[in-house]
């Protein structure tokens, strides 16, 4: 299987002014192939977010290579990397980051800002996505009128709009109850089952995955299922 | 999906912030357009006032013209009565008549009950030499004012003299001298001089006139007749302040000629000149008033301009800073949004355009509001009524264009740094910050 994400001995150290440096990633290597559902566990501050942001082209590591679909994303110019990200990578965050003044449909359509896409096609796809996530009855609602679980599903729909090859989810269930967590995780699994690569960073060790890894002191180690 | 949707919805979502921004722009542009309109209104009002003053001056001059005619008519004519054979050219050349009248003529006139006559002054006038001082002089012999019989109320009981004559007889043994003679000979009232072998006391030195009067020596008529060998003769009768209609010289001449057939009457102090001078003075006064008004209005205009040149930059700067902080606050408020937009691949330029477009839209709307309020306030303050055509004339496209340009530049400058800051925020910092 082709590696969608190939993390090659990636290191990232934070050097806050006046404080001792922290090695968030220490020669981390990781690969996620198409159709794979992989989880990185770790306690708060272990570097999970750094790993996801580096994987998503949002944070350049100090050393190592990050290949997405064979492209070294940090060798791209910022403009090209932004476009590459828009076309290839989807993000889901713990805080959803929904835009409060857009309704659900408009929020799901926001990735279209990054790509020149036909509006009717985008809207059609957004509606399908929303329907798939069971939110068809909430199309015109602003995020403030949605439950927490529904908000995360909207965030998921937004991440999947451009049909990315890689989905990066940072604590996607961090704010959800068990039932909603299960729904969101199930949708992520469905995405992987349709050929997408999914990498989740979470402190929740109960999530079942194709491969589960633990990030501690900047280093990854496998976790027995 | 277009960035405009984000701008539109965000404005609706954060109405208060946008409203404050609009108010800032409106105040800045209102100050600008209001000050310019006020200056324009001031200038228009100045023109109106000056046109009105010009009109009033013209009307005043016409009124004065009529007044002076009336006044001059009441003041009457100053005429001189000469012998009928007297050549005017010779009179002008010699400076005195060379024909003579019997002294009795003046008394005949005085007793003639001519209603137009008020004051009669007989004179024997001749150019001669002051031999002791080797000086050319004009000798003026007069007995003083001769009574006019019908003016009994002004005469002494015996009717022989005026109680308060406007020209008194020269006292015995005294002379009056012109200013130039006094200067030349260093004479003062009370000095004693010898004239044609006779001693005289200088009774009075007349004020400088800038005319031949300055070389005149006034003495009693008897003395002058004796010296000039013109016993019982005079050569001029001055008839002063003769009362008659505006064209009354003909009437005076007719009445005098009826009594004295061999005389001619000449007006020697022109009413036209007097009236012209009076009119000129009044006109000068009016012009001075207009010039003072122009200066006053110009001063107010300068003060307004000075005030505007201070006020406008200060208000623009303050508004610009306020807009800057509002947009900066808006950027901070929307960090999460910026983070996710960057994460999903939205380019920096799109982020900049979202914030900058909002700032420019705010400038556009604020400029229109500020322009309308500013122009209306400036026009009303400048004296134009709300329902005047003049009021609406102040709303001109050029000023609107200037207002729009200034507002757009102001908002672009104020919004540029926050917009760039928003675009260059590290999304990792924002997203990791959760």
Task: Provide a quick synopsis of the model.
The complex is a heterodimer of chains A (225) and B (434). With 225 residues, chain A is α/β, with parallel strands linked by helices.
3D architecture notes:
- The complex is a heterodimer of chains A (225) and B (434).
- By secondary structure, chain A is of the alpha/beta class.
- Chain A has 6 helices and 10 strands, in the order βββαββαβαααβαβββ.
- Chain A has helices at 48-55, 78-88, 104-109, 119-132, 148-160, 178-193, and strands at 3-14, 22-33, 37-41, 63-68, 71-72, 89-93, 166-170, 197-202, 211-216, 219-222.
- Chain A is globular and about 50 Å long.
- The two termini of chain A are 22 Å apart.
- The mean pLDDT of chain A is 90.
- Chain B has 2 domains: 3-63 and 279-432, no CATH class; 77-243, no CATH class.
- Chain B is built from 13 helices and 11 strands.
- In chain B, the strands form 2 sheets. In chain B, strands 6-7-5-8-4-3-10-1-11 form a 9-stranded mixed beta sheet. A two-stranded antiparallel ribbon of chain B has the order 2-9.
- Chain B starts with a helix and ends with a helix.
- The model of chain B has no long low-confidence stretch (mean pLDDT 86).
């Amino acid at each position: 299987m082709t590696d969608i994400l190939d993390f090659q001995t990636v290191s990232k150290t934070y050097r806050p002014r006046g404080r001792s440096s922290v090695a968030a990633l220490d020669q981390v290597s990781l690969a996620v192939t198409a159709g794979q559902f992989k989880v990185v566990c770790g306690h708060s501050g272990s570097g999970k977010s750094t790993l996801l942001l580096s994987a998503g082209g949002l944070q350049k590591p100090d050393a190592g290579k990050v290949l997405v679909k064979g492209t070294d994303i940090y060798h791209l110019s910022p403009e090209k990397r932004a476009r590459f990200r828009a076309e290839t990578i989807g993000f889901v965050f713990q805080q959803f980051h929904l835009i409060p003044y857009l309704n659900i449909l408009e929020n799901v359509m926001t990735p279209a800002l990054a790509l020149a896409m036909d509006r009717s096609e985008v809207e059609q796809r957004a509606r399908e996505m929303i329907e798939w996530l069971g939110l068809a009855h909430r199309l015109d609602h602003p995020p403030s009128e949605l439950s927490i679980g529904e908000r995360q599903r909207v965030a998921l729909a937004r991440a999947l709009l451009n049909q990315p090859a890689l989905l990066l989810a940072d604590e996607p269930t961090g704010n959800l109850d068990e039932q909603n967590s299960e729904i969101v995780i199930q949708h992520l699994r469905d995405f992987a089952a349709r050929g997408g690569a999914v990498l989740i960073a979470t402190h929740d060790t109960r999530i079942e995955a194709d491969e589960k890894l633990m990030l501690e002191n900047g280093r990854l180690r496998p976790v027995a299922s | 999906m277009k960035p405009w949707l984000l701008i539109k919805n965000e404005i609706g979502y954060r109405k208060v912030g946008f409203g404050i921004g609009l108010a800032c722009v409106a105040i800045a542009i209102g100050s600008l357009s209001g000050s310019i309109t006020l200056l324009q209104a001031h200038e228009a009002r100045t023109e109106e006032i000056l046109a009105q003053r010009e009109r009033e001056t013209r009307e005043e001059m016409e009124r004065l013209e009529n007044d002076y005619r009336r006044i001059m008519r009441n003041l009457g004519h100053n005429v001189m009565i000469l012998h009928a054979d007297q050549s005017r050219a010779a009179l002008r050349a010699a400076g005195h008549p060379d024909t003579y009248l019997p002294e009795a003529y003046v008394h005949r006139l005085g007793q003639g009950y001519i209603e137009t006559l008020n004051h009669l002054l007989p004179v024997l006038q001749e150019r001669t030499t002051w031999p002791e001082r080797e000086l050319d002089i004009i000798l003026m012999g007069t007995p003083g004012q001769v009574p006019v019989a019908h003016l009994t109320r002004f005469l002494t009981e015996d009717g022989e003299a005026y109680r308060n004559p406007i020209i008194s007889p020269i006292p015995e043994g005294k002379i009056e001298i012109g200013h130039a003679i006094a200067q030349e000979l260093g004479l003062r009232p009370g000095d004693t001089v010898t004239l044609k072998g006779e001693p005289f006391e200088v009774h009075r030195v007349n004020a400088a006139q800038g005319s031949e009067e300055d070389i005149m020596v006034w003495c009693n008529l008897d003395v002058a007749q004796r010296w000039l060998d013109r016993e019982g003769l005079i050569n001029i009768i001055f008839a002063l302040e003769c009362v008659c209609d505006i064209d009354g010289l003909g009437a005076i001449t007719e009445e005098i000629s009826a009594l004295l057939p061999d005389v001619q009457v000449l007006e020697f102090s022109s009413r036209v000149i007097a009236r012209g001078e009076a009119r000129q003075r009044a006109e000068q006064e009016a012009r001075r008033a207009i010039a003072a008004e122009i200066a006053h209005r110009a001063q107010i205009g300068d003060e307004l301009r000075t005030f505007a040149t201070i006020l406008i930059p200060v208000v623009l700067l303050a508004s610009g800073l306020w807009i800057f902080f509002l947009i900066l606050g808006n950027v901070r408020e929307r960090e999460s949004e910026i983070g996710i937009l960057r994460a999903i691949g939205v380019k920096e330029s799109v982020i900049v355009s979202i914030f900058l477009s909002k700032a420019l839209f705010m400038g556009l709307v604020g400029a229109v509001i500020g322009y309308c309020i500013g122009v209306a306030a400036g026009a009303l303050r400048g004296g134009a009524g709300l329902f005047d055509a003049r009021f609406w004339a102040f709303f001109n496209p050029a000023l609107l264009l200037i207002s729009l340009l200034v507002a757009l530049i102001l908002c672009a400058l104020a919004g540029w740094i926050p917009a760039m800051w928003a675009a260059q925020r590290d999304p990792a910092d924002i997203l990791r910050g959760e």
